[in-house]
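Box 3.1 A note on notation
Throughout this textbook, protein chains are presented in two layers. The first layer is the amino acid sequence; the second is a token string describing backbone geometry. Keep the layers aligned when reading.
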Amino acid sequence: MINANEYGFLPENTPYKNSEAFQKAVDEGGVIQVTVPGIYKISEQIEIGDNTKLVFCEGVILQRQASATGINGNAFINKGAVCGEYNRNIEIIGLHLKCNGIESDDFGVNSRIAGLRAQVAMIYVENLKIDDFECHGLLEKDYAIQVSAFKNIVLNNLYITGNKDGVHLGWGDGFVISNGKFCTFDDPIALNAFDYATSNTHVGWIENGIIENCVDMDHNTTTGFFCRILGGSWCKWHRGMQVQHSDTVAVNGRTYRVLMNPKDGKLYTSYNPPCHEKGIMEYDGINWVVVRNSEELNCGCRNIIIRNCKLQKKRNIGIAISLNYDTYARSYYPGCRCIPQSGITLENIVLENDIDILFHSNYPTENITLKNIDFKNSKLCFDTVPKADGIIYPDVEITANNVVFNKNSIQTSPKHPIKICFK
């Protein structure tokens, strides 16, 4: 067991010296403790390797400062993130982090990893545990925790406040998010198998997850949803295709995305297929970023349980399965087939404020289970995206057990029909 204080990680030291000392301790691997209470200023990104457990004892608070290099990275990241190699068996226990007006710089075309924008950023990680985590002061860009390309993660006992997403997951298999308190302007929890190219490092299925015992804390302003679920569908690259920012293609054994300016809404004609193996390269004036080393054609969420959660914040929509179709992203490339989101269970969801629509989907969806829910004045809504003409919406099969609807609870579109089985 290593005590980071003995390496020079101390409350009275400068941010750069503390970062350097803590990184030196973390590089040893194993269990690294911080035992001296106090506020520790850090300015540089801390990189964590395999078989490493960080333990911050009671009274230890980390406060971010501007980087000495002039470019702020993530507060914490796994060592394999940049090179795309998996790290295994990482634990972070008791991390209490104050953002202090600092977030990661340059997450666009010039970034090391496009779409990686979080205080704690983990991609290519297996067996990750974050427990007793607090993060306060999120600004408008960085998430508190972002994890993608993951296998088996546990995020427990969280308290997150600020302006951006609390927990933002991308492609991965096996997760638990439990005992979380969230007071964020944007989504407390985002299961974004597909998202803007500047918001996600990967595209791919998010599967086999549990969200439980979480609270969407009340606040007078908000956007987004308590839980946002995103899927997407695209095609193989073909010469002359029209693409825009965040469009996705499969070609040359890999999956690529367009990384351009979303604000101009411009379409670009692609004449030459992207073929680079890593990072970002330009072809025909189009920036393409590699997001998978396989030819995927769709992504989404399946086998997800959301249970024992309290919605205390007034929202338009509580839980949403969304299809984006704007200048920032087209979840659906015209002519493609959307694979339905499926196996979504909502259980013991308590509405403690006005939620206009508890559950909304405008993406093809199948197999929804509702248990022990009183909708009060809220709704269950299934509709479509008019701009994304051509999408086939299957019947949504809903199993309802001990569910109380009001007379206006269910809203559907003729193109997105539902079948409810009451038990």
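The longest strand covers residues 118-138. The longest helix spans residues 15-26.
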